[in-house]
Amino acid sequence: MPVRTWELPLLLLLGLGLGSQEALPPPCESQIYCHGELLHQVQMAKLYPDDKQFVDMSLSAAPDEVLQSFSALTTAHNHSIPRQQLQEFIQRYFQPVGQELLSWTPEDWKDRPQFLQKISDAKLRAWAEQLHQIWKKLGRKMKPEVLSHPERFSLIYSEHPFIVPGGRFVEFYYWDSYWVIEGLLLSEMTETVRGMLQNFLDLVKTYGHIPNGGRVYYLQRSHPPLLTLMMDRYITHTDNISFLRENIETLALELDFWTVNRTVSVNLGGESYILNRYYVPFGGPRPESYSKDEELANNLQEGDPEALWAELKAGAESGWDFSSRWLVGSPHPDLLSSIQTSRQVPVDLNAFLCQAEELMSSFYSRLGDDAQAAKYKGLRVQRMAAMQAVLWDEQKGAWFDYDLENGKKNLEFYPSNLTPLWAGCFSDPAAVDKALKYLEDSQILTYQYGIPTSLRNTGQQWDFPNGWAPLQDLVIRGLAKSSSPRTQGVAFQLAQNWIRTNFDVYSQKSAMYEKYDISNGQPGSGGEYEVQEGFGWTNGVALMLLDHYGDQLTSGTRLALLVPHCLVAACLFHLLPSFLS
């Protein structure tokens, strides 16, 4: 594959020769959970409705014994094992999913955290109490054998218990955990949060980065980098400066991973700007979606399957797996086989890193290290200038992903376009109100059940009509930074819309979901698996909104309570959909 000019800085950072086609060694060498004939045969036989089920099973014997037995089986059947024999092999050598984990009730859980008192609406307060209860259902800890025999598990050992998203996701996930932690801190569960933070810090010390999730097959990729922000939230709630001092270098190491492995140079108007992208330089199908990735590659009309698999992994690293965001510039913009994640310079990733740089500068100042504080302050200034030059569009009043190959912005709507507001990485005080006009021009405020993930319906889960809790938070808290009553009023109404969607579905189904269909206010759909219940980050965002707007939010549609929070003439138009529903 030819090297493009915008890839050169990354290749130089990685120390790769331009003529070299060698891939970096994969962090996971497992011939059972990450690559190899056993994985291929089992996943392509489709013994389970979800590929993730097999790679989450633990071994009943040592890996060498399992592989020797499998080799004998393949030889006996000329590498085409009948389905029944394959099933018998799995039953003999593998245990059902979840055997290595124990349910865990957090020791710092308490009956009535204080934030509940802020919620005026009695029905919403009772619901918030039930959301607070869910933390006990999502608590997990690992059995000692995951530490003593790590080779028998795809699960990566973590010393401290943690909160999982829910459903098929029985391990922790990186960016999910930020919104979980926000909810846990409102629930006054600071020891649980400290343990989760320590698990992440230990992963950085061991692997140099935090993987997508807590499984060895996720080690090739990371997830949106929010560890520094998690630390900030914990320190704000506890003032535990000694914990910060003990771990500040590990936070720096995690940001170095993004600098060394995910940096790209953009040449624009004679200037060169350094920004970051999602990029996973490893081929091979994703083990947890193996058969889907294989079938996608088999149907390629042209192109390299290894390149396709690397782009799918980069899309998974973004957290948006998958979305029309990554299909831009393709002759087939609705086909997942057209994915080109690494070609995009994403707004949200750079906003997250900009925020992390600001927080690191603040952390080092508090610890008395002025030199490091100045370093990170300088990095933030450089990034903000680059984001302004490359990603900001003054006419539209928002930031947009930048296509490296075509040298232009992707002007489609995504909530991520406003992430710099949420992250505090903007210099123009009028940017928030410009963003409101952008939302109005995009007709986003006409959706009464939540903010759509995009305006394109591709069948992917990070597209229309799905709405996701973290994306609601990005927009709502971004708009809430405005000093304008009208903009603040719209932020509140967006919060009201999302809370009512969550509350109404919970009232019907007694469950919280990972995503919602904002066209009908029901659980979402699309993508590679069925919509999941639980659900960690949805619970966290709901608690955050209930805490922030608790004296205003309602479970019904009382006009008199809503109108005072915005200028009637200016925003009644945006409130009407909720009143009429």
Structural write-up:
By secondary structure, the chain is mainly alpha-helical. It has 22 helices and 13 strands. Strands 1-2-3 form a three-stranded antiparallel sheet. Strands 6-9-10 form a three-stranded antiparallel sheet. A three-stranded antiparallel sheet has the order 11-12-13. Helix 10 runs antiparallel to helix 11 (241-261) and helix 18 (469-479) runs antiparallel to helix 19.
Span between N and C termini?
53 Å
**Spans where pLDDT lies below 50 across 5 or more residues:** 1-23, 558-581
Radius of gyration: 24 Å
Strand share of the residues?
A: 5-15%
Percent helix range = 40-55%
The number of distinct helices, counting runs of at least 4 residues, comes to: 22
- Number of strand elements: 13
User: Given the C-alpha coordinates, what overall shape results?
Assistant: globular
What's the main sheet like? 3 strands, antiparallel
How are the strands of the largest sheet arranged? 1-2-3
Class per helix and strand makeup: mainly alpha
